[in-house]
Structures
1.
Amino acid sequence: MADALVLHEDRCFDPDPAVRRVAHTLYDETRRLPIIAPHGHVDPRILATNEPFAEPAALIVQPDHYILRLLYARGVPLETLLDGDARKVWQLFAEQYFLFRGTPTGAWLDHELHDVFGVEQRLTGETARSIYDAIAERLASLEFRPRALFERFNIEVLATTDKASDSLDHHRAIRESEWPGRVIPCFRPDAVFKIAAPGWPAELEALGREHGAPLVDYAEFVHALEDRRAFFKRMGATATDHAVLEPYTAWLPPDEAEVLFQQARQGEATRADERRFEAHLLLEMARMALDDGLVMQLHPGAYRNHNQLLFERFGPDRGGDIPVATEFTRNLRPLLNAYGNDPRFTLVLFTLDESTYSRELAPLAGHYPAVRLGPPWWFHDSLEGMTRFRERTTETASIYKTAGFNDDTRAFCSIPARHDLARRVDANYLARLVARHVIEMDDARRMARALAYDLAKETYRL
Amino acid sequence: MADALVLHEDRCFDPDPAVRRVAHTLYDETRRLPIIAPHGHVDPRILATNEPFAEPAALIVQPDHYILRLLYARGVPLETLLDGDARKVWQLFAEQYFLFRGTPTGAWLDHELHDVFGVEQRLTGETARSIYDAIAERLASLEFRPRALFERFNIEVLATTDKASDSLDHHRAIRESEWPGRVIPCFRPDAVFKIAAPGWPAELEALGREHGAPLVDYAEFVHALEDRRAFFKRMGATATDHAVLEPYTAWLPPDEAEVLFQQARQGEATRADERRFEAHLLLEMARMALDDGLVMQLHPGAYRNHNQLLFERFGPDRGGDIPVATEFTRNLRPLLNAYGNDPRFTLVLFTLDESTYSRELAPLAGHYPAVRLGPPWWFHDSLEGMTRFRERTTETASIYKTAGFNDDTRAFCSIPARHDLARRVDANYLARLVARHVIEMDDARRMARALAYDLAKETYRL
Amino acid sequence: MADALVLHEDRCFDPDPAVRRVAHTLYDETRRLPIIAPHGHVDPRILATNEPFAEPAALIVQPDHYILRLLYARGVPLETLLDGDARKVWQLFAEQYFLFRGTPTGAWLDHELHDVFGVEQRLTGETARSIYDAIAERLASLEFRPRALFERFNIEVLATTDKASDSLDHHRAIRESEWPGRVIPCFRPDAVFKIAAPGWPAELEALGREHGAPLVDYAEFVHALEDRRAFFKRMGATATDHAVLEPYTAWLPPDEAEVLFQQARQGEATRADERRFEAHLLLEMARMALDDGLVMQLHPGAYRNHNQLLFERFGPDRGGDIPVATEFTRNLRPLLNAYGNDPRFTLVLFTLDESTYSRELAPLAGHYPAVRLGPPWWFHDSLEGMTRFRERTTETASIYKTAGFNDDTRAFCSIPARHDLARRVDANYLARLVARHVIEMDDARRMARALAYDLAKETYRL
């Protein structure tokens, strides 16, 4: 016999009645605010075509690297999950669903199953089949088409993440359709910065193709980047995004960029070359941001494709990206000294290294006008992770130097669950301050709204 | 006048009634489960001979480096503690016992005094003498012989830690006795890996002696290690253990291991040589583990014998071992790429650097099938330390990629206290999740049992 | 309409009734203890001259780099704050005061406004003017003269921080006055250690002038330092203080110190030279401390003047000092091996890198007799920061290896607020232990008093 899936009204709130009462009140005032999703990985195609979603396993299990990761870590072969029959994959997932108890993935999924798909039983091996059927049935209906869900989710704006060479055809299609949903691109040129990567020549060529001219020297390369930024901006973008191993920034000596660029074109760029080239390009990006006003996001500290075997067999995002210790104070100094005092510039910093919250990030954000702290990223986008972030950054940087929430997800149907969890955690954080008489209730109200809505809009210039 | 020593039934539980009620219920279901002690430093001799323990100071104070450390840090000379008259040592310890208020040592000792020795007064300068006498009297009785305590403690299995060259005579004696207690060795070959240490030649010789052939080249050395692992396994071992400064792993080029080995035999190996040799041997250990199925434990990050003066006068474990920042992501990549995907392999990772919990360890355990997280080690085996560990690892790795508890102690009589504290902290951690409606009560029940018993058995293949 | 400014009696205490009740009781026993302020930056001139304080903006806003920092970070130009009309600066500050909700600056200021200046309305744009007038009026009265406040604040001893070349004329004036307040200097020779700094020759010359002889060689330089320490001690000092980027200590080879000193006199010392020179001088300072008994404080880990632009325009303490990761275990080993076991020596360690609390600092303090942990410093001197410090150090080092509280402030009128916050947080920390039955109430009482008063006196030999 299966248990009922119940989402408790006060979940994630401290059990202390004084805290819970306040948290509940604050959350009640933010829970229905529109969703601002300024950073994420939803495929714009789904909103351009508005075709029905695939069946449950392909929608929920197979594209979610949080789910695949933990199932794999407990011994389930990836082949079984990726290539198997959809119903069998779903069954296997349901049988292992206990693994996700106490994880954000578990919380998001329960929310998504219950609130988006109307599931009323807990997912287990026994209920797998009937839940699969119920979801599949709903997915076939018109109200579960992507655009209908976008509206039901009350999304005010949704940013995707797109390569520098992306034609943005899907974004164009959305804009040219009658549909009023605001879906905007974000300029992420990582692939053309990684000059030591085997795929770089192809990426460069693709960029040149979109740019309309071959990129034969560094000046033309920079020109193409400027052009593409302008194009993205015309298509609605308000931000760029940059993933690097270290947030290292340093100007190259004159002509050195050209030398490295030509070495890369000969296929002779080393990892050390790449590191210096990227450090210089981050400065170029900041320089351009002053002109075009695009907000610059920096996501450093993930050692990509740590698991060589899996990377070779299954490609990126399945190869075990693992964080490393990250240094911001020295690495960002050149960039911040050049542009950090300029009111035209906004730099949103993310980290996978929580030890930097209080040590480096809050002090930087609490000093430089340009710096904002992005929300807890990835492994830290969780009840405890978000709480740690607030507890370690607010006292130095205040909440007003943070960037609100972003869901960073490719799982479209999990967006409401993720924003809901963040709003709950922030309400609870503020309630703890109220209950300890550190802030007054009217302050808490304003702060709750800022965290849920205002700060994201303000930071990302939406 | 002396106060009563009372162990509160709900100690370590949150005062919030909602949390406490659940914590109490969960703990009630785990408190009497047998103790699995898969990693520790109890001397097997005491269980082989089953002789009575010495008097209280020699049993409780002098061998406990947690106690010596803090007394020394407050100005008590080590000579006084180690060479003094037993009753005077005990008196001095009792007078300084207030230092341990709020530390795990204080919690363990109160538990041990009360539950194991039936002490009913708090230990102070005034009560020192009568408590000494009471303990001494009990130690003389048959019920306080080591094997009787082992049974009373409800220990299902106890692993010791033994050098590669250990004859395991005590273990043999236990196995050959009528006594059914399960006491197993653990293979810890550190001493023969540290080729730059002055004691290495003697360690190598001892290994050769036990192996039955002089270890004149690297091939024979590796052969000896394989043989000894097999011997330990026959004697009941299910695991190996490796203490290193850094968890650095890297294959040596062909023949390089032989070159280093010969240099070491000439007494010419440097610390840099040792580092590379150890990095290679960790890989060899993992390779062997695939064949013989011994679980591999890694304890990195202690700078041993930091206090040169004390080390010279009092030897190891008294010379102030101090943690250093530890890097896992890059250091372990060669080992994990070679063996981390293999279902035959289990690697249990420990750390003294809590910043790695959420940054590196939980992501590694949440991805690689072979990786398990060992419990909070040493300075972090405490109420707050264990809570931090759960709060920072569960959301990424789930509890099911952790290894349950191990007490890591040489203080035999403190074993129940340590497991009890861990079970309380885990019950309280889960109760907080229940009270916040993050997990359901039936999940919490299963998870509490897993943390207290199942996971240790499963991880260590017991 | 303006809200009332109310300081809740139980602010900062956990809302849980069991914790709050105990916290309240403990705090009631420490709240009126005299203030020991063994480390801070109050200008001794104010107590020497006892002149009235300036108007509110010059007293409260302009010298407080915590306030300037966050206003600047939200886009207020420093020029506006530093050069503007006093009433306008105050108005601007009041309008942005919401930024400080949830920060320690906000808590301190509310306390200062309410308890020191009798303000009864919350500071906002609307109330700015009347509050300004009220404070200005009070500042003009005799009871608001510095010495009167010193007495009203119940300060038992106040240490300032003074350059090696300081004549200590203000301290002399205080001692020679009839006024019995105890104000003592602290010897901070940083400026003469930084041999690569452009200002070093002038600093050296000033030191020689006070010493009474030109400092032409290293021996004379060391001699001058010894002399100045003796002079500071005669003037009441009980401690020295040393700010370094890294806590690196290492003996220079014989004659090398002389070589570096002469290079510096030629203006040829590099940053690398400076690093080695400082590492050697820290050892010299410890050596001298054994003789003269001055307690040695070490404040490492601030990257000074990170913001070059602001530093050039506004000078030090406005140029954005940002923390960096800090290593203690290896860096301090030479110093601790030389002097850490000596009962004559006390070394108080501070950090801006919280990851070192449990990893390095508590283990060092829990082993070496000489080591004490200073209170959470700067960005970490806050409700959450102080709680983290206790939770991460007590279990390894006990509270008895910490140094009590110090306010580290130049804002004289904020001293009571800062000590009050610390006493509240420590009371709450202990109350949590009591409520979880980890310690008994009588222990908690003794510990609360130790944290509020005894430990600071004992550590700083006051």
Note: The longest strand of chain A covers residues 239-244.
2.
Amino acid sequence: MRLDQTTLELHSRGRGSYDITGEVAACVSSAGVVTGLCQVFLQHTSASLMLCENADPQVRVDLETFMADLAPDGDRRLAHRTEGPDDMPAHIRAILTGASVQVPVAQGRLALGTWQGIYLWEHRTGAYRRRAVVTVWGE
Amino acid sequence: MRLDQTTLELHSRGRGSYDITGEVAACVSSAGVVTGLCQVFLQHTSASLMLCENADPQVRVDLETFMADLAPDGDRRLAHRTEGPDDMPAHIRAILTGASVQVPVAQGRLALGTWQGIYLWEHRTGAYRRRAVVTVWGE
Amino acid sequence: MRLDQTTLELHSRGRGSYDITGEVAACVSSAGVVTGLCQVFLQHTSASLMLCENADPQVRVDLETFMADLAPDGDRRLAHRTEGPDDMPAHIRAILTGASVQVPVAQGRLALGTWQGIYLWEHRTGAYRRRAVVTVWGE
């Protein structure tokens, strides 16, 4: 069994989703694992990680539309506003969508479906540096 | 440490949830792992996997009711419609509920709670073939 | 490779979230794993586990407010009511937020971000005993 762990420094440019499949795939390659698993863990609570359709970018635009209605910025029901009107909605979005993704490794590569990509989903309106820990283990 | 990986071919018959606990349990048995973990990963973005109450089927009916109101088919806010009015709502449902489940293995079996089952949740209205990768590792 | 598995007995005191970071961290310490992963799995379908901001308790109050509007108790659309008006909303909340968390282990400790805590999120209004299986593996 092999185990490899790397920290990725990611840079968001405001609210939206960013394809990080390539960065994660590179960690799998350098780990030398043929069959196993890869976990990506985001060390933040106002951004998240998601597996999403990677063919039509409109899908991710529609996800923003959906979330903007579900957890609107400046929502008067929410009292945690010290960091701005987008902060508490960002926490809500992050909890609904998750801080980690786990993808099998097969034949030395991420065993993603044809239309699956791994995305950092920034929920704050500003630009942030985000850290993700990638752990790969297997044979 | 042992590690075993299998791909399950699942067949949905339209929107709804399908108990796959038996298929996953069979992978654990054949892996010969006594203590460890089992991951099930769905290679799709318009269906998901969930752990759900397995006693009263009404729970899963109510989940459909809830989701139908939260992310309704044909929602005019959403522009990704090339594959039909149920496609973008299916992506939303999948992202809110997740593409993988991870269950501990103890005493050679899935360490599920008494009322927990593993379900494929098909979010498209049509019937689809869905692939899930099951990875089991441990001692 | 080492692998260690422990069951935690948790006690909720009604709806709300409870910091269990210390209990999970103790499992990591006793496992003697330096680099690897830790999984916490809840054996229930009406409570969940979440990673949440641990600085301002108002965040978790706002999460309750959000969920109370999203999946209100006694919702007339929902028919699974034999265990009370809070039961089906609890299942919905649990499915939206997840039964497990996976956190990397680095330098012998949980590699959480500065503001991340691990919480048991009780969705039922009553007090319950909840069981969580903690599995730690790595080098």
Note: The mean pLDDT of chain C is 98.
